[in-house]
Amino acid sequence: MKKNKSKHGLINEFATRLKFEFCLSKVNLANNEDFLFDDLYDYVHIDEKNCKNKRFITKIMFKDAVARPRYDAHRKNYFYGKIGIWPFVYQEPAQRNSKNRVKGTMITKNVESVTAVHCKNMIIDNVIPAIKSKFLPACKRKTIYVQQDNAKPYFSDNEADIVALGSSDHWNIKFKAQPANTPNLNVLDLGFSTPYNRCKMKLRPTQLTN
Questions:
Q1: Domain span at 147
Q2: Which Gene3D superfamilies does this UniProt record tie to the protein (predicted)?
């Protein structure tokens, strides 16, 4: 009889307590009687998703960022919660001629191994500027939390340059890590990334840029 090995291993009592405290922090006591869940309008969820085809070795990792949908009375339109989707890619000149391009043409290549440096640069160059452009200016009056998991490529929550960029222009953007082995606490892990695979099967991309 084969043993059933869990993908994430057994969750100990300490991890269970952290999950309970994390969930309890999202509950507000109203009128000393009713317990209400936080509306989470000040939270942004980020995560990564790999897109690949089993026929090819090449795969691309994307950084996703979403927030709760809401009506934007300032811009008089509806904000659907999408902050941005960015691929981990770079460009370099082609080394030789081919039927598709000439030597020296700039081509897009994927980052083979995403490290903490890549994630940090993605946050600085794309995620934080996108949050500032998509959120209302009135959100500057409160703290915006960017929730990420505890994956190894992630950076520390209190790095100086991240803190400085998050607090610039009168914003207050902070990063928080969710408890370990809790994919159900992140909207992106709950199925938001599923459309990637559906679009890939429908469009049948032949190039990396597709």
A1: 41-203
A2: Ribonuclease H-like superfamily/Ribonuclease H
CB-CB contact of 46 with 64 (8 Å)? yes
Report how many domains make up the chain: 1
CA distances 104 to 91, 95, 108, 139, Å, are: 11, 7, 12, 46
CA distance linking residue 52 with residue 58, whole number of Å: 7
Express each pLDDT in 104-147 by its tens digit.
888 888 888 888 888 889 999 999 999 999 988 888 888 999 99
Q: Which two tokens stand for residue 171?
A: 């914003």
Q: Which residues pair with 86 in a beta bridge?
A: 63
β-pair partners for 174: 145
Averaged pLDDT, 93-102 = 84
Q: Distance (Å, rounded) from C-alpha 123 to C-alpha 132?
A: 12
Has residue 154 got a pLDDT over 90?
A: no
pTM for the model stands at 0.79
